[in-house]
Amino acid sequence: MPSLREIHSVLASELKKALTLEPVTLKYQFPVRPIRTLGLIKMDGEVFSSEKLLRIVCLRIKLPVYISVCSTFIRPKPEYDLPVLSCETIMTGSKRLFLVDAHRTGEESAKDEHDPFFDRLIKIRDSYPELMKYQKQSSSGEGIQSLHSRAVCKVRITQDMDDMALGVFKEYLNAYADLVNKTPQLSGDALDKVKQAFESYLKTVIDHDPGIKANKIFFGKKEGVARALEMYYGI
Q: What is the pLDDT of residues 110-138, one digit of tens each?
């Protein structure tokens, strides 16, 4: 049976059908065992880019007591008006917390209310009724939850439903790749507006994103933020 532990292999296989992926060499490379965790936590992964995507991040974190995390983050280049696609899978034994979503940055987030791309994602999500019985509602308007779109899929499930979660992930990914391929480049005032909106979005992420908070704990505030900004945003 397919496993959510294979999610990054699924990502690479699906994206390579539509995009050309190039490996990114980071200043802070993998694998790494943060000294602050006494080597008990291992972080590993791969980072890619493509013509229109600045970062395609596949991060895996192995914690003690059978806890592991697979984190996926796809960030477009600033000159394209594209949302971010993200997926978090936290596995503890046979239990999973699975979240996949696409969201626009800053003021651009208002666009998703009437965007056919998000309509497509919701149609995909709702085609898995057995999975959606376990949908977990997010708090709206607070912290990182304020960035979630109306198409977010967040479920608490068990291992026997991995194939359904992977199905949603694969279909979201393919819908996103279609959007990437047909999106034109911005310029002038439109590009300036998107860049300005991104600054507000980035502040929310730095202040509230659980991944960046974990990085601060693992590596200290300065290095933790620097690692996250380089890995996820190329900054």
A: 555 558 999 999 999 999 999 999 998 76
d(CA 51, CA 214): 30
Domain extents for the chain? Answer: 4-233
User: What is the longest distance spanned by two Cα atoms in the chain?
Assistant: 52
> At 81, which helix (H) or strand (E)?
none
The DSSP secondary-structure symbol of 5 reads G
Q: How far is CA 196 from the centre of its chain?
A: 21
Secondary-structure class of domain 4-233 per CATH: alpha beta
User: pLDDT tens digits, residue range 19-55?
Assistant: 999 999 999 999 999 999 999 999 999 999 999 999 9
Locate 122 and state its tokens.
Answer: 């919701």
Q: Specify the pTM.
A: 0.90
Phi (first) and psi of residue 4, to 5 degrees: -65, -15
